[in-house]
Amino acid sequence: MSVGSSARELAAATPVDRDRYVDLLRVAALAVVMLGHFFMTAVEVEPDGAVEVTNSLTIITWAQWLTWVFQVMPVFFAVGGFSHAVGWTSTRRHGGTYADFVSSRLDRLLRPTFAFVAVGMTVGIAVEASGNLNPTASMVLRVIAQPLWFIGIYLAVVALAGPIVLTAPRTA
Q1: How do residues 49-106 score in pLDDT, each as one tens digit?
Q2: 3 CB contacts (<8 Å, ≥6 apart)?
Q3: Which residues, 6 or more positions from 144, have their beta carbon under 8 angstroms from its beta carbon?
Q4: Are the beta carbons of 97 and 110 closer than 8 angstroms?
Q5: Are 167 and 83 within 8 A, CB to CB?
Q6: How far apart are CA 57 and CA 69, in angstroms?
Q7: Which residues of 132-165 are buried (b: 16+ CB within 10 A; e: fewer)?
């Protein structure tokens, strides 16, 4: 599919047995996680010029209850586990190996991650080369990359998906 594919073309190309509800849950959970992390980060410049990164929920305390309403991490991991199980089963059905499964998942995850890192590094280098790398700009560039810690955890989950599915009790 090309980048400009319409929703109708994408829907027509999707296998009929694909669980679209799980896809909806994955997209919704991912969007809430990303937006939550984005809105929780606050960069403050103190009167003395010091730059502090803090959690915006310590500043906007009335918004703390929203974390209970938008608690999506269990959904995120449940649908991710389901998707890994379906992907691993499909890989095996098509004669693929565990290495094929992990390789395809890593490719799908790391390709956009590397693009994000490349753009971030390019912006950082451009800001530094322009002579505008003040403490605030430096802190913002570091904060943008903070959510990448999660990639390592998710890669571990991907690597364990095959062994977990293989050892899970079979039903029906």
Answers
A1: 777 778 888 888 998 888 888 888 888 888 888 888 888 888 889 999 888 988 988 8
A2: none
A3: 120
A4: no
A5: no
A6: 14
A7: eeeeebebbbeebeeeeeeeeeebeebeebbeeb
